[in-house]
Amino acid sequence: MMYWLLLIAVPLALGLYAQFKVSSAYSKNSQIPSRGRITGREAAEAVMASAGINDVEIVEVGGHLTDHYDPMHKRLALSSQNFRGDSLAALGVAAHEAGHAIQHKQGYAMMTVRQTIAPAMQFAAPVSYFIFGWGFFLGGAFMKALLPFAIVALVVMVVFQLVTLPVEFDASRRAKAQLVGLGILGGDEMVGVDQTLNAAALTYVAAFVDSLGKLLYLLLLFTGGSRRDD
């Protein structure tokens, strides 16, 4: 029971807290317009232009916080609120995604590693979620047979999420420096950007801790089961 609390319940609670923080920070700072009143699209364009990037398409996508950079197609996607908005949150998110475009252009090593692992991650994630969800529900021999597959899938997820941390932190660092360096935001306006991007970073930390906790828990089950079989 203690292992379940430490390795499953605590990371789950951290994940819920991280989601609350990012939702709260984004909601708050999306209501604060920047003094320059430039949009997120314009901010992303300026940040990339400063790094000599002029071949990345900036597109508007639906959904809430669906912003991402697609290195395969050199496309920077911003959700409508951040594409059209001129808030501190919109500019922070847009500049963060532009930071990923700069990483791609400069061949940032950790981003290259993440791109290499990404195809395996796309397969591992659903496998892990299925086994972890249905395995415990069905229990018994079914769970025992699937444990090795779940462990391998979670190893891939943990490695991917571990590599993701420096990629996201570095993109935020670049974004903050460029927003001030290019005069897009004043130093006093960066408080809202810091709150938004720091809260977003916490979600990546929480995802890593969650996957690591699940992996350790399954390893305990696996090794415990092996001892009992002996």
Description:
The chain is mainly alpha-helical and 230 residues long. It has one domain (2-229). The chain has helices at residues 2-29, 40-50, 80-84, 88-106, 109-138, 140-181, 190-229; strands spanning 57-61, 68-70, 75-79. Strands 1-3-2 form a 3-stranded mixed sheet. Helix 4 (88-106) packs across helix 6 (140-181) and helix 4 (88-106) crosses helix 7 (190-229). It is elongated, with a radius of gyration of 20 Å. Residues 226-230 have low confidence and may be disordered.
Task: Set out the fold topology.
Blueprint: H1 2-29, H2 40-50, E1 57-61, E2 68-70, E3 75-79, H3 80-84, H4 88-106, H5 109-138, H6 140-181, H7 190-229
Parallel strand pairs: 1-3
Antiparallel strand pairs: 2-3
Helix pairs in contact: 1-7, 2-4, 4-6, 4-7, 5-6, 6-7
- End-to-end separation in angstroms reads 23 Å
* Sheet with the most strands, sense and barrel status: 3 strands, mixed
**Count of extended strands:** 3
Number of helices: 7
Question: Strand order across the biggest sheet?
Answer: 1-3-2
Spans where pLDDT lies below 50 across 5 or more residues: 226-230
Beta-strand share of residues: 5-15%
Rounded to an integer, what's the Rg over CA atoms? 20 Å
Shape: elongated
Write down the overall mean pLDDT: 91
SS-derived structural category: mainly alpha
Strand-and-helix sequence, N→C? HHEEEHHHHH
What is the percent of helical residues?
Answer: over 70%
> What's the domain count?
1
